[in-house]
Structures are given as C-alpha cells and as structure tokens.
Amino acid sequence: MPFFEQLSAALSQQAASPAFWLIGGVTVFVIAASKGAFGGGAASLGVPMLSLITDPIGAAIIVAPLISMMDMFTLRTFGPSSWSKPDLRVLLPGLLLGLGVGWLAFASVDPRLVALMIGTISLAFALHWFWKRRGKPRGQGKPASTPLGFIAGAASGFTTFIAHSGGPPVTMYLMRRNLGKTLFVGTTAAVFTIGNILKLGPYGMLLMARPETLAGALLYAPIVPFGVWLGLRIHHRLSYEGIMLATNALLIIGGARLIWQALGSLLS
C-alpha cells in the first residue's frame, strides 16, 4: 500500500479510538504542561504510557517530534536571557557525545535496561533531596563543574535518544546549582531544545518508515500549544521552592513508572 494511503488509513483508525485520545492525548498534554512549567520533567512518561496503545519503539518515534514542537513554544518565553551560559558550556559537549552513542546503539541496546537504570537513579536522587530538605533552609549553590556537567550531558544525550528519558541527569546537575526558577527552567529548556532538534533527523527517517507513527504525531500535535500555555501559567505562579518540589515529585513519579514498566517487561 502506498505511503499516503497507509497514512490516511492510520489517521482514520487512530482518530476514532477512545484509548488513543484518553491515554495518549492526556499523556502528551501532561508532558507539554511540564515543559512549560519546569522545562521538562514528565517526558519520561511518554514512552511507557504510549506503549499501552502501541509498541515501545513506535511510542518513542511518536514522542520525538512532539517534544521538539513543545521546545519551540517553550523557547518563546525562555530565551537566551534565561539560560545559564556556564552550565550550557559544560553540558552541551557531553550531550552531543551521548546523542551520537545513543544513535549508534539504538538498535542494539535494550531500552528496558536503560529505563530501569534511569528510573532507579531518578527515584534515589529525588528521595534523597526530600530527605535532606527536612526542616532545613535551601543551601548555597555550587559552581559549574566541567566533569559533572559533561557526564550529566552525556548521560542525558544517550538516554534521551534511546528512551526520551534524558531529563533526570540534567535536572540533577542543575539542582545542585540553585540557579533560581527561571534560570533553572530556561537552561533545561535550552539543553533539550538542542538535543531534540538533533534527534529529529534520525527519528524523521523512522517516522517515514512507519506511517502509523507519523499519523499519531500529527493527531497529537494540536494538543501541544495548550499544554505548554498551561505550564507557563503554572511556572509564573510557583516559587523556586515550588518548582523544586514539583520537579522532584515528577522525578519520583517518572522514576517509579520507568522501574515498574521495565521490570514488568523484563520479568514477563
């Protein structure tokens, strides 16, 4: 069947599916809102949630262009003035390396093992943060670190290419910096805008090879601006402490979800 006929058939089938909208539509909206409010945080929910209505590889392909679209809307608010340049200088080289390794390893690395690793690290980090903050005021931020930033960027680039779960390494690195809410969100948004744009080439080829994933991305696309708009309103209403609380809560939810999904798949 020609490509456009397959695309048209997939659009009709998915548009008529209640599960497609109830599970996938809500998931895309939550990810978009988290992008606007926190610069990310919930993107790791995309693959495990959409895997309930398609296969994991198909879910990853659908999510890739949608996240890039979210970044374009987010950057309209969080432009260069909201970026921490010293942190970008140490994060981006590692990010590029991680993306390259992720691309090369995409077909051979088990994404379930990557998800399990990232989920465990995310959960441990967030629980440790909540434990340390009990009754204590926020401490002084630490200086930008080239080794830690490079490692965080590389881990983020690799995991974002394999499983769209690149948020935790960058989040954990930036949280130690205590940048303030706008610099924190703006820098996070800048890192992932660059990473997600670079992912579009390889994922674009995968989209064209699987018309049903392109159909899914096209149908979900109109949800994106509304989710980002709501997230931006939330961002402006929250304090830095509120942003950190919400970010760590998302790390716990996303980490637990990744662990649950990975273990369930590995043990089945």
Strand content: under 5%
Query: What are the segments in which pLDDT stays under 50 over at least 5 consecutive residues?
Result: none
Tell me the Rg in angstroms: 18 Å
Number of DSSP-assigned strands = 0
Please bin the fraction of helical residues. over 70%
Give the helices and strands as they follow along the chain.
HHHHHHHHHHHH
Mean pLDDT: 83
Total helix count? Answer: 12
**Apparent shape:** globular
Descriptive notes:
- With 268 residues, the protein is mainly alpha-helical.
- 78% of the residues lie in helices and 0% in strands.
- The chain has 12 helices and no strands.
- Helix 5 (85-105) packs across helix 7 (146-163).
- The protein is globular and about 60 Å long.
Keywords:
single chain; 268 residues; mainly alpha; globular
SSE topology:
Elements: H1 3-15, H2 18-38, H3 46-50, H4 56-74, H5 85-105, H6 111-132, H7 146-163, H8 167-175, H9 181-209, H10 211-220, H11 223-237, H12 240-267
Helix pairs in contact: 1-10, 2-4, 2-11, 4-9, 4-10, 4-11, 5-7, 5-9, 6-12, 7-8, 8-9
